[in-house]
Amino acid sequence: MTARPLSELVATAAARYRPAGRFALHFARGKLAGDPVFAGLLARGLIADGAAILDLGCGQGLLAAWLQAAQECHGTGAWPSAWPPPPRIRAYRGIELMPADAQRARTALGADADIVTGDIRDADLGTPDTVVILDVLHFIGHADQAALLARIHAALPPGGTLLLRIGDAAGGAGFGFSLWVDRWVAFVRGHGLARLHCRTLRDWVALLERLGFAVEALPMAQGTPFANQLLIARKPAAATTGPAGGA
User: Fold this and answer.
1) Which one of 53, 127, 150, 197 counts the least CB within 10 Å of its CB?
2) Distance CA 40, CA 80 (A)
3) Alpha-carbon Rg of the chain, whole angstroms?
4) Burial class of residue 143 in the structure, from the number of CB atoms within 10 Å of its CB (0-12 exposed, 13-18 middle, 19+ buried)
5) How far is CA 100 from the centre of its chain?
6) Sign of the CA dihedral 201, 30, 196, 61?
7) CA-to-CA distance for 205 and 215, rounded, in angstroms?
């Protein structure tokens, strides 16, 4: 059965946040249990073994804690039988704008992750082979989105992967509800009344393809009222030309 191993995985990952305080611990439990993207990444084997991950807008580093817990649970046999083995991570680097979130990540993850406080629009991307951006890009303007995605394409090696979750602006009521939630979350986290810069799924895919990515879209809102899609954008292994650009 999947339910029991999954609950053990959530508990193992969330336990990393006890030293970071009650808010960090309870947020980790709720987010990891309720957001389908975390289970989806592992169930579908979307992160390669030995990956060097760059997590942009990493928050309190939940993805790193999740992947570390996956190794622990797989090693003890508490692992969903239908899932592939979890990836072993060569390196994890997270960039987070909010200092309080970045500090919670450092407290929880210690030496297992490199957490940088900074703005993803101009941060040094380094040389990852996997870039993850979950529910972040609509907080920056369209031109900045395109510029960042172009820099990611340039930073990735041939065959590298961008995992990008977005809300589909053509998603009807589900998208409208997600906008309300995002604005509320941004406000309580100190961003004020944030302006959101959204696109339809078709427009996100078209932008990524113009930049040189091959794109696959997967619905990633199971069990939630949102209109989220996970875009798996791969830089072709035989890439010989640079991105075309465009906002």
Assistant:
1) 127
2) 12
3) 17
4) exposed
5) 19
6) negative
7) 7
Measured distance CA(108)–CA(121) in Å, rounded: 25
Tokens, residue 75: 């090693």
pLDDT tens per residue across span 115-151? 999 999 999 999 999 999 999 999 999 999 999 999 9
Those residues whose C-beta lies under 8 Å from the C-beta of residue 129, and which sit 6 or more positions away, are 48, 51, 52, 156, 157, 159, 160, 161
* pLDDT given at position 188: 57
Tell the residue number behind the tokens 């990008």, with chain if given: 164
- What's the token pair of residue 162? 């961008």
Counting every residue, how long is the chain? 247
* Cα dihedral 160→123→147→201 (10° resolution): 60
Dihedral, CA of residue 142, residue 146, residue 148 and residue 151, to nearest 10: -170
HSE-CB for 13 with a 13 A CA cutoff: 29
Amino acid type, 59: G
The helix (H) or strand (E) run that includes residue 154 is: helix 142-155
- pLDDT tens per residue, range 57-75: 999 999 999 999 999 999 9
Residue type for position 103: Q
